[in-house]
Design goal:
Chain A: This is CENPN protein. The complex is a heterodimer of chains A (about 350) and B (about 280). Chain A is of the alpha+beta class. In chain A, about 35% of the residues lie in helices and about 20% in strands. Chain A is globular. Chain B has six helices and eight strands, in the order H-H-E-E-E-E-H-H-E-E-E-E-H-H. The chains are: A alpha+beta (about 350), B alpha+beta (about 280).
Chain lengths: ~350, ~280
């Protein structure tokens, strides 16, 4: 077995939390159950990884097989990576008959025709998600396994999730291969990025909670109603205002959990409006300013602003439109009658 | 002297007269209040009698119900709730219901496949300046934009009908594939290759006959997105298999074309048992 493969396996195992190593190796399926029995999973990770490498040596693992373990790790811990969303367009209106074998063949062929030194792995999951791992090399060097790119694609959808961590120069090649393989026409990057892959999927696949007004008898969600204080001497003075805020909030954000985004960025290119007497800027140029909202869970914190009394309800549509517009990067220019912010840099 | 005495008597008489007047006024007031009390008591008794009568009527079996009208407010409310629930259930069962919103209509599409109710999807439409889709929860792989481009402006009923067909067919195909994986997983070898729309299924399955198992591979193509049965079926077995098996493959192919996937499996599983 190649030294580099051994080292790669060793380092991949070291990334895995100790309690998860056994299950992940079982999922990998490269080592037999009897081989796994011989490993003591209670020793320190250094030693576990050495044992694993030893066994892989016995089975003569190659880099492609080692890469599968990396895919499994990244599938279970996707939130360690930053994901961007790309949208594809197609011209025709033919019914899509997505054939997985066809897709894989076309993708590999397109990529390999431009770059020989690549390691490509595919793995499909129950929810129709196709995970692709690509390790990039150059015409003169072997692929760098430690800076692999990940692509997640759900068949017959126009969205691709990419976690790059590679030279930007390989990105156009990757995009082209994806477009060709999936029978689309072109691709563009969306202004939507997050560490939470599932939240990105929720936003573009419209799986997040939206509040639809219908007559349909959905089971009413039990909201946590604080027990009315038994003491009748306590009166909530602004009870009606609180209820109004709750109602407005529910209309905007819906009942369920919000998709998890870490930030929203607003690039302002608007004129600085001030008292003409206090002439800050001599030139009448747009005042360039970048506003960035960061949070471990941005949309949930926006949802709780009004009930917490920190903001007026309803919130600015610039904040609440994030899931519907599927973007968290905005460019705001002077209002020319239309709602700004939908100017997407091509 | 005498005048002083007379004055004194006069004032005493005056005071006595004032007191007498006051007393008379008090007594008058008292009498009035007592009369009022009597009145109220009478009213209370009347109402009590009414309540008793109503309660008796609700509990009573038949008997002389002299006044059939005047159901209690509570009964009316309960009837109203039951009737509304029944209407909502009716909407749900028909598969599509709509509610007028401030700016248009919001539709709820409930899908079903052969008696099993599956997912519900929502479509929020705006009416002005032209009919357009505001928000929705339709899966991204359903060609909603294409259908909207064709029919939304011109014939909204057709739009909804076509969309309903797509959604029902999709959940039907998905249901069949799920049922297959759930109930016949022991006959399927390897993984069941499917896609988001469930319109291409490729898998290998094994049929046992006379204590031997024979592998088949099948490719089901659902070319019509509004249909939950395949348009193209290819069932193949190993080239060196006996002719009887080739016949069986052809028979299976027909079954897949005509009936639901899991039902087809059920039918040739039981057929095999009867052949043995």
């Amino acid at each position: 077995m190649d030294e580099t493969v051994a080292e790669y396996i060793r380092r991949t195992v070291l990334k895995i939390p100790r309690d998860e190593i056994k299950t992940m190796l079982q999922k990998w399926g490269f080592l037999s159950e009897t081989q796994l029995q011989t490993i003591n999973f209670h020793q320190i990770k250094e030693n576990i990884s050495q044992d694993v490498v030893q066994l892989c040596e016995e089975n003569s693992a190659n880099i492609k097989q080692a890469a599968v373990l990396d895919i499994i790790y990244n599938h279970i811990y996707p939130n360690k990576r930053m994901w961007s969303v790309y949208q594809m367009n197609k011209r025709g209106e033919e019914t899509e008959i997505f054939d997985l074998t066809d897709f894989k063949k076309k993708f590999k062929r397109r990529l390999r025709s431009a770059l020989k030194n690549v390691t490509i792995n595919f793995r499909e999951y129950e929810d129709n998600a196709i995970w692709i791992r690509i390790a990039w090399g150059t015409p003169y060097t072997k692929p760098n396994q430690y800076k692999a790119s990940y692509v997640v694609y759900h068949s017959q959808t126009p969205y691709i999730f990419i976690s790059a961590s590679m030279l930007r120069s390989n990105l156009p090649l990757l995009c082209q291969a994806l477009v060709v393989a999936s029978n689309y026409h072109d691709i563009r990057e969306m202004e939507l990025r997050s560490h939470s892959l599932n939240s990105l999927k929720d936003i573009v696949f419209k799986r997040y909670s939206q509040n639809f007004q219908t007559y349909c008898p959905r089971p009413l969600q039990e909201r946590n109603v604080a027990p009315e204080s038994a003491d009748l001497r306590i009166i909530h003075e602004n009870k009606s205002e609180k209820e109004r805020i709750q109602r407005v909030n529910q209309e905007v954000f819906g009942d369920g959990p919000q998709p998890k985004l870490e930030f929203a960025q607003y690039k302002l290119e608007t004129m600085f409006k001030s008292d003409p007497k206090i002439d800050v800027l001599d030139k009448k140029e747009p005042f360039r300013c970048l506003v960035k909202f960061s949070s471990p869970h941005l949309l949930e914190s926006l949802k709780s602003l009004a009930p917490a009394g920190l903001a007026d309800a309803p919130l600015s549509p610039l904040l609440t439109c994030i899931p519907q517009k599927a973007r968290n990067y905005f460019k705001i220019r002077e209002k020319k009658g239309l709602f700004p912010g939908s100017f997407v840099s091509p | 002297g005498v005048f002083a005495h007379l004055e004194m008597l006069e004032s005493r008489a005056y005071q006595a007269a004032v007191k007498q007047e006051e007393r008379e006024q008090q007594e008058e007031k008292l009498a009035k209040l007592q009369a009022r009390v009597q009145e109220l008591r009478l009213q209370r008794d009347e109402l009590r009698a009414k309540v008793d009568l109503q309660q008796k009527r609700q509990l009573g079996k038949g008997g002389a119900v002299s006044d059939p009208a005047q159901p209690s407010a509570r009964a009316v409310l309960e009837w109203k709730i039951k009737s509304v629930k029944a209407t909502l259930q009716l909407f749900y069962l028909t598969g599509i219901s709509g509610k007028l919103t401030k700016r248009g209509v919001c539709f709820c599409i409930s899908t079903a496949y052969e008696g099993t109710y599956l997912d519900s999807y929502y479509l929020d439409l705006l009416a002005k300046p032209e009919v357009q889709i505001h928000r929705h929860s339709i899966p991204i792989f359903i060609p909603l934009e294409q259908i909207a481009k064709k029919y939304l402006q011109t014939d909204i009923r057709r739009f909804l009908s076509v969309l309903l067909d797509h959604l029902n067919a999709y959940v039907g195909r998905r249901y069949q594939a799920d049922q297959l994986q759930e109930h016949f997983s022991d006959q399927i070898e390897g993984t069941l290759q499917r896609n988001s729309l469930c319109n291409l299924l490729v898998f290998n399955y094994a049929v046992s006959s006379k204590s031997k198992t024979f592998p088949f591979s099948v490719r089901l193509l659902y070319g019509d997105l509004c249909c939950s049965l395949p348009t193209e079926v290819v069932v193949s077995c190993a080239p060196d298999a006996p002719t009887a098996l080739a016949e069986a493959a052809a028979a299976h192919s027909e079954l897949f074309r005509l009936m639901a996937l899991h039902k087809a499996f059920r039918s040739f599983s039981s057929a095999e048992e009867s052949v043995d």
